[in-house]
């Protein structure tokens, strides 16, 4: 059974810091956007280094993360457990990931809350040897506590109709149908041969 690395893709939550921006911010919010740029780089570097403690230090205690297979984890402990399951445990799925997140535009600020959105292009190597690149979309909500911005919610998705895992599933399904078809043909040939042998058995002796 193939599981989306988006489950594993937990990493994608961490890779994105809410607001790496390409455009120049307004002077009023320049300091905020500068801080968010630093956070983005910090999170992406920590993810690619698989430094879980460093990642978690930038999350709100009640953070909510929705993975691309619709798994929902709430709180740092739940996210730590998910990361351990997907990338470190005995039944882990992901061997390593390199994430690259881009923002669509400046983080939208609403007082002490910010909302960012963008795309990602992420390279996964799974423990079964599968090597894939996934193009995703994400939305992130941030909150400011004191002089720090923390990630409060992150939602990640990918195209369910066109992605590398779906292509792999289709190829495996086609291979399975081919094997079943060949097996059926072989079984039919064997049965037909035995039936012909029985029908051509020793002729009855004339009286």
From TrEMBL:
<dbReference type="Pfam" id="PF14534">
    <property type="entry name" value="DUF4440"/>
</dbReference>
<keyword id="KW-1133">Transmembrane helix</keyword>
<dbReference type="InterPro" id="IPR011944">
    <property type="entry name" value="Steroid_delta5-4_isomerase"/>
</dbReference>
<keyword id="KW-0812">Transmembrane</keyword>
<feature type="transmembrane region" description="Helical">
    <location>
        <begin position="172"/>
        <end position="191"/>
    </location>
</feature>
<keyword id="KW-0732">Signal</keyword>
<feature type="signal peptide">
    <location>
        <begin position="1"/>
        <end position="23"/>
    </location>
</feature>
<feature type="domain" description="DUF4440">
    <location>
        <begin position="39"/>
        <end position="151"/>
    </location>
</feature>
<protein>
    <recommendedName>
        <fullName>DUF4440 domain-containing protein</fullName>
    </recommendedName>
</protein>
<dbReference type="InterPro" id="IPR032710">
    <property type="entry name" value="NTF2-like_dom_sf"/>
</dbReference>
<dbReference type="InterPro" id="IPR027843">
    <property type="entry name" value="DUF4440"/>
</dbReference>
<keyword id="KW-0472">Membrane</keyword>
